[in-house]
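dumping this here before i forget
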Amino acid sequence: MLTTLGVIALACSLDLLISEPPNSAHPVAWFGRLVDHLEREWGDTEAGQRLAGVAIALFAPLVPASVAAGVVLAGTAVHPFVGAVAAGFVLFLTTSVRALLELTETVVAATEGDLETAREDVRGLVGRDATALSPAEIRSAAVESASENLADGFVATLLPFALFAPLSLPLAAAAAAWVKGVNTLDSMLGYHSKPIGTASARLDDYVMWVPARVTAVTLAIGGRDLFALRRARAWAREPPSPNSGWPMATLACVLSVRLHKPGVYDLNPDADLPTLADGERAITVVGLAAVVAVIVALGAAFGTTLLSSMLVESTAGTVVRGR
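structure:
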């Protein structure tokens, strides 16, 4: 348990100090280039593309998972401390909070006096066309993305890592890297216009079911409004994704703002679109929710440690009685 605490502390410290490596040195970007090569015409029919997509969804995430596990195993073979440091780096590379909050802050601040910059920078957060969006709509997009990416880019990899770390650091690193691979596949291929990405999108829906809802809880706690979860239920299923609506609707209710994607969804529609102050508060709430998520992850790690100890004691008692 102490090793797990140290590894998570290392990963979070690296995120605060370094944020993210440049794309040229980032393993997630390397995996993205692999996905680019996989996105091609594998068959002459839509069914053929979907079948190829199933193979990609099943096997492509195993590549980063295998590499992550191999790196940690190699480090452990040198010394357990080296293996723990390697696991910390894997977790750091598969999570991101500081970069998310900094970009959100940049976009929100730019909506006040530099709308063109805001429209340009918000592309780093959302895929929608921002050329016709008002300042309030740009802030809405930034707030939506901050909540959704807290789930995708932090909670989704932190939770499985924490669950498996007390049992095996290589397994924990593999789990985090596998989830990151699934998320990356979905973000690059999971569009209705790409039959090859159907399986990846469906797999991501299953993988993100728990992290999205845990993230909603952390946002409610971070915003000191647990009843926001109850209010969010009214709109959580409006977005096309079965998961992203939970963190977005919860943050909308915590902030008492309307989050709106034209022609797609309207969360908390009776409220006003975010003001500059609302956008700034959103950044604070998401940051606090990330801290809460770390506490939740440590609780999960403690639960794994306790359960494994109980199983070991039970097995040992059975063996003794058998003798």
